[in-house]
Amino acid sequence: MIGYVQGTVQYLDDRSCVVLTTGGVGYQVFPTAAALMALVPGAPVAFHIVTAVREDAITLYGFSSADEKKLFLLLTEVDKVGPRLGLAIIGAGNVSQIIGAILAGNSAFFSAISGIGKKTAEKIIIDMRDKVKKLAASASIEAPAGGEAPNRQTGEAEMGLLALGYHPNTVKTVLARIESKNTKRAEEIVREALGLMRESPKK
């Protein structure tokens, strides 16, 4: 199995790239959409690789870190989550954001990803919650106090603030300062949070 590839970007298309190694071998790698957009032909590149073997194909999925690779492997253990959907989840946020969404029970984070419905989003959270705890420790993420998940409106507000570019730690800190948020709509929580973060830098 191929576990790591390093070289230069030889070729790009809308889903993959070819990494040319110093030995003259070119490997076709399928990274996340965000990683693919950042690549430039001729530039150096390195990927942690997951090799998926089927009867009709051998596919290399590429990740920018070992933690991304570990999270992808855990995600693809969930029923209904194949490699392509797992890759889409990894591309939806950094490792901290994805694990944070699992530990917080934020199904809205996953259902916002194309190809994931409400039932699959909830299954990901249920199946992954215990599995990601070791990975969460290495990423310095803690489960919500008491194991309680925020309500849907708070989760949607958190997603909206992250989409605006605020750092996950800043978002969590500000949301913790908002009183009675469980009785407010997501847009109300976002407006109040933005008022508190006017002086806070974006990531």
Question: What features would you describe in this structure?
Answer:
By secondary structure, the protein is an alpha+beta fold. It has three domains: 4-64, Beta Barrel (OB fold (Dihydrolipoamide Acetyltransferase, E2P)), CATH 2.40.50.140; 66-141, 5' to 3' exonuclease, C-terminal subdomain (DNA polymerase, domain 1); 150-203, Helicase, Ruva Protein, domain 3, CATH 1.10.8. The protein has helices at 33-37, 66-75, 83-90, 95-104, 107-111, 118-128, 133-138, 152-163, 168-177, 186-196; strands spanning 4-12, 17-20, 26-30, 44-53, 58-63. A five-stranded mixed β-barrel has the order 1-2-3-5-4. A hairpin with a 4-residue loop joins β1 and β2. α8 packs across α10 (186-196). The longest helix has 12 residues, at 152-163. The protein is elongated and about 60 Å long. The two termini are 37 Å apart.
